[in-house]
Specification:
single chain, 281 residues, alpha/beta, Rossmann fold, eleven-stranded mixed beta sheet, 11 strands, binds hypoxanthine
């Protein structure tokens, strides 16, 4: 099943039929919000509001592990994370979509793994999935993230954006910061020298944890503002929210038209479902 992790606004998609709101408890606690199961053009999809209702969870306190575990438990195999980001690369303009293909991680306090060896929670597998057994057996794993984002989902996103004639960039390096503060101008200058294109606070560890469950994960970023120091003025959350509102209709169109492409796609020539092979130690 395909799942979307995003902000508000996605529940009210035209043509979407909400089937149920599901409360899930995981070995890592409760997700940020109940998960919405809905029908889009006849296909079942899941939605999760990353920051919870009323934006109750700041980026560093989002229960990323519970969110991903719950989605997998409800049958998600493919995830599209939708993110607001600041633009570092001056060729990228506010309002543009970016289908990121790499990340640089500057987060500091977030658990990045489900598998904490002897420190893992006690857990009895509910099914026969590899990740359930790795957790139950209290194993340690080191997954490869040379290609962190699913190339097949990225290609579907690109085809969708191209068909809709929206301004987009097919690749980009996402810099993940700890937040919740925005960055200093010097940090953005440094990230730029390191090859960063956009900056945000949530895609890591989300993508890493998705990979630890062998899920396909792609990130659809919306540039809401020039990053700190670039526009030479103070940044506000207001402009981020305003740009996301402005792009809401386009995001809905992307969601609506990519669902069918994902379900009809037969060639998943990626290694996303093999991430845990040979990863345990
Ligand atoms: N920095 C970090 N996160 C963000 C930004 C930014 O400039 N804009 C939207 N999310």
């Amino acid at each position: 099943m395909l799942a979307f992790i995003g902000g508000s606004g996605l529940y009210n998609l035209p043509g979407i039929e909400i089937l149920e709101e599901i409360k899930v408890e995981t070995p890592f606690g409760e997700p940020s919000s109940p998960i919405v199961k809905a029908k889009v053009k006849g296909y079942e999809v899941l939605f999760l509001a990353r920051h919870g209702k009323g934006h109750a969870y700041p980026p560093h306190l989002v229960p990323y592990r519970a969110n991903l575990w719950a989605l997998a438990e409800l049958g998600a195999t493919k995830i599209v994370g939708i993110n607001a980001v600041g633009g570092i690369n001056k060729l990228l303009q506010p309002g543009d979509f970016v289908i990121v293909d790499q990340f640089l991680d500057f987060t500091k306090t977030r658990p990045q793994t489900f598998y904490e060896g002897k420190f893992s929670p006690d857990y009895t597998p509910k099914g026969d999935k590899k990740h359930e057994h790795l957790l139950a057996d209290k194993r340690v794993v080191h997954i490869d993230v040379s290609e962190p984002f699913c190339p097949t989902l990225r290609e579907i996103l690109e085809n969708t954006l191209q068909e809709l004639s929206f301004r987009y960039h097919p690749r980009g390096t996402y810099v993940a910061t700890e937040g919740p503060r925005l960055e200093s101008s010097a940090e953005i200058k440094a990230f730029s020298l390191l090859g960063g294109d956009v900056v945000g606070m949530t895609m890591v560890p989300e993508v890493v944890l998705a990979r630890e469950l062998q899920l396909h994960y792609a990130g659809l970023c919306v540039i809401t503002n020039p990053a700190a120091g670039i526009a030479g003025r103070r940044l506000t959350s207001e402009e981020v929210v305003q740009m996301m509102k402005q792009k809401e209709e386009e995001i809905k169109q992307v969601v609506l038209s990519m669902v069918e492409k994902v379900y009809k796609n037969e060639k998943w020539n990626c290694e996303c479902e093999k991430t845990l092979e040979g990863a345990e130690i």
